[in-house]
Amino acid sequence: MSEVIQDFLESAKEFANTKIRPFAAEFEEKQQFPAQLIKEMGKAKFLGATFPEKYNGMNLDPYNYGLLTEIIGKADCTARSLLTVHTSLVGSAILRWGNEAQKNKWLPDMAEGNIITAFALTEPNVGTDASSIQTSYEEKENAVIINGSKKWITFSGVADYLLVIATNGKKVNAYMVDTKTPGVTIKPIKGLMAAKASYISEIEFTNVEVPKENRIGVDGGGFAYIVSTALDHGRYSIAWGGLAIAQEALEAMVNYSRERKQFGKKIYTFQLIQEMIANAVANIHSTRAFLEKVASLRQQNHQDSVNETIIAKYLTSKIAMQISTDAVQVHGGNGFYNKYPVERLFREAKVLEVIEGTSQVLQNIISLYGLKKYYKINC
Ligand SMILES: Cc1cc2nc3c(=O)[nH]c(=O)nc-3n(C[C@H](O)[C@H](O)[C@H](O)COP(=O)(O)OP(=O)(O)OC[C@H]3O[C@@H](n4cnc5c(N)ncnc54)[C@H](O)[C@@H]3O)c2cc1C
C-alpha cells in the first residue's frame, strides 16, 4: 500500500471517529444526515474515492476502497449507504459507460460532494423482478419524457440527480434526471425500521422532460450495462458494509462482556458467551479473507469477479445479521436500549439482506454459478 493511500485511510479513520461515529445515533433520531457532513466527506475525497484523479478522485483500487467502506460503515451505516449509492452505484455506472462529456459534467462535482446522486430502479410493484419495470420513457426530438414511479430510493430526498431506469416497452435505458425538473415529486418514506437518516423516498415522474444527452450508455443498454455494472459495484460496497457491521458488533460484545459482571464474574468467563465471541471472530476472519480475495479478482477483472462479489455480499450480510443478533444477546436488556449501539447495528444489518438483491435471489444466482462451475469437476 502506498504511503499516500495509507495516510488517506488513516485520515478516514480519524474523520469517521470524530465526525461520524459520535453522532450516528443522533442522525437516526433526527432522521437527517447533515448536508455539511456530506460536503466534508466530499472535501475529504471519500465520495470520489474510486474515480480517477482527473475527475477529482482518489483512484482507489478495489481493496483500498473496500477498506474505506469498512471504516465509514463501522462508524455509521447511513454514511456508508451514501458511498454505496453515490460513489459505487451511480459513480461506477457513469465512469464505465458515460461518454467523456458526461464524465466531465458529473464526476468532478460528485467527487467533491457538490452534486449528490441516487440510483432509481425499484418501483412500488417491481422489486426483485427488476426486468418488469414500468417507469416509461418516450422519445421526443432532443428529449425523452419520463412517467412512472420509483420507491425506496436511498438519498433521493437530498439528491441533485437520479439515475433513473426506464423502458419504452422494447428497450430499457438509464437517464440522469435533475431532481429540480418540473414533474419530479419526491416524497420521503417515514416509519422505517432502519436507514432512517438515508433520505429514502418514493418518487413520482409526471411528464418529466430529460435531455437525450443524459442517457448513460448505448441505446437499450439500461439493464445489460448500466444496472448490471451499478449493482455489481453496489454489492461490493455492501459486502464491506456487512463486514463493518459485523466487526463493530464484535467489538461491542467483547467490550461489554469484559465489563459486565453477573454471579460475581465478568460475563465473558461464561462459556456460552465465549461461544458467541468465538463464532463471531471465526466468521469475521474467514469472511475478511474472502473479501480480500474478491478485491483481488476485481482488480484483475477476473471473469468470476461478479459472481464472487455476489457470494461476498450474501455471506457478509448473513454474518452481520448473526453477529449483531449475538451482540444484542450479550448485552442482555441493554441490547434493546438505544444508549448502546448494538440495537441499531442489528436493525441496519437486516437491511443488507434485502437491498441490491435479496438473499434469496442471490442464493438463486450462487446455485446456478455452482451448478456450472463444479459440474463434472471430479469426473
Ligand atoms: C433500506 C432500503 C434501501 C433501498 N434503496 C434502494 C435504492 O437506493 N434504489 C433502488 O432502486 N431500490 C432500493 N431499495 C429497494 C430494494 O432493492 C428492494 O426492496 C429489493 O430489491 C427487494 O424488492 P421488494 O422489496 O420489492 O421485494 P420483493 O421482490 O417483493 O420480494 C419479497 C420476498 O420475495 C422473495 N423473492 C422474490 N423473488 C424471488 C425468487 N425468484 N426466488 C426466491 N425468493 C424470491 C424475496 O427474496 C423477498 O423475501 C431499497 C430498499 C430498502 C429496504
Architecture overview:
The chain is 53% helix and 14% strand. With 379 residues, it is α+β, with helices and mostly antiparallel strands. The chain folds into three domains: 3-116, Acyl-CoA dehydrogenase/oxidase, N-terminal domain (Butyryl-Coa Dehydrogenase, subunit A, domain 1, Orthogonal Bundle); 119-214, Butyryl-CoA Dehydrogenase, subunit A, domain 2; 222-373, Up-down Bundle (Butyryl-CoA Dehydrogenase, subunit A, domain 3). Helix 7 packs antiparallel against helix 10 (342-352) and helix 9 packs antiparallel against helix 10. The longest helix has 38 residues, at 222-259. It is globular and about 80 Å long. The two termini are 42 Å apart. Flavin-adenine dinucleotide binds at residues 85, 118-122, 127-128, 152-154, 195, 200, 351, 354-355, 358, 360-361, 364.
Short summary:
The chain is an alpha+beta fold and 379 residues long. The chain has helices at residues 3-20, 24-30, 35-43, 62-75, 77-97, 100-112, 222-259, 271-299, 305-330, 342-352, 359-373; strands at 117-120, 136-140, 143-153, 161-167, 172-178, 184-188, 201-211, 261-262, 265-266.
User: What ligands does this structure carry?
Assistant: flavin-adenine dinucleotide
Number of helical segments with 4 or more residues: 11
Any idea how many domains?
3
Radius of gyration: 21 Å
Shape: globular
Reported CATH architecture of the largest domain: Up-down Bundle
How far apart the termini lie comes to 42 Å
Order of helices and strands: HHHHHHEEEEEEEHEEHHHH
Q: What is the CATH T-level topology of the largest domain? A: Butyryl-CoA Dehydrogenase, subunit A, domain 3
What percentage of amino acids are in beta strands?
5-15%
Please give the order of strands in the largest beta sheet. 2-3-7-6
Indicate the CATH class of the largest domain.
Answer: Mainly Alpha
Describe the largest sheet: 4 strands, antiparallel
Total beta strands: 9
Q: Calculate the mean pLDDT score and round it.
A: 97
- Looking at the chains present, what oligomeric state does this protein adopt? single chain
Per CATH, the superfamily of the largest domain is Butyryl-CoA Dehydrogenase, subunit A, domain 3
Uncertain parts: none
Structural class, by secondary structure, is: alpha+beta
- The percentage helix is 40-55%
